[in-house]
Amino acid sequence: VAIQARQTERETEFLLQLAEKYNFIKGVVGWVDLCNSDVRDRLAYFSKSKKLCGIRHILQSEPNDKFMLQENFQKGIYALNEFDLVYDILIFPKHLESVYYLVQNFPNQRFIIDHLAKPHIKDGKIKEWEVGIKRLSKFPNVSCKVSGLVTEASWDCWESDEFIPYLDVVFSCFGVDRIMFGSDWPVCLLCSNYDQVISIVTKYISDLKKEDQQKVMGLNAAKFYNLN
Predict the structure, then answer these.
(1) pLDDT tens-place string over residues 22-44
(2) Which end of the chain is more exposed for a tag (fewer CB within 10 A), N or C?
(3) Is residue 139 within 8 Å of residue 149, measured between CB atoms?
């Protein structure tokens, strides 16, 4: 699944073109302006491609922590269900409370928390993030993507063991049926390589049943994103 990084429709077009050209790209999480009054028209346009499986807005970059709770944005979220699209949630821990209220308003919308909501691994902070994650996990329509760990740690000296407490939290809260691996490639290359990122998760889940390992490493994503 290719995930947007720039908030432009041009990039959404680009990713969908790549997905049509290369069959190993099974889905695209793109971007449209969810606050715009023509959001349904734009979703209809991009949904002509069967590879569009979700939408993401980079909420972590909005100056207002409650940006996601404004009426126009929520109207855009409401429109996603009409097109059977997932919404990927990209936030920092400080946004977890607002996300709780957002998700509460949309019990039929599928949500995915990207990068575990970016806990402050470098500083060893976990308690407040854990509280927010536990609250969100109570919603059955919310899943969690295990990704982006290395970039939240110290780039030049991280150790795989420091991720275990955070993985313990999400696996305890969401269980193996609502967790999916994400590489965060190419961003992960800032402080690791692709194989290292994969090994952090595969090592952690190595004691799980083979079927549950397969869920985390691909089957859950295929199901949640409705990939063919």
Answers:
(1) 999 999 999 999 999 999 999 99
(2) C
(3) no
Tokens for 70? 């404004």
pTM for this structure? 0.96
In the sheet where 52-57 sits, what is the strand order?
2-3, 28-30, 52-57, 86-89, 111-113, 142-146, 179-181
Tens digit of each residue's pLDDT (9 = 90 or more) over 195-222: 999 999 999 999 999 999 999 999 999 9
Q: What span, in angstroms and rounded, lies between the C-alpha atoms of 49 and 21? A: 12
C-alpha–C-alpha distance, residues 37 and 103, integer Å: 21
Query: For helices 194-204 and 164-174, what crossing angle results, to 10°?
Result: 60
SS3 label, residue 130: helix
Distance CA 112, CA 95 (A): 14
Rounded to an integer, what is the distance from CA 124 to the centroid of its chain? Answer: 22
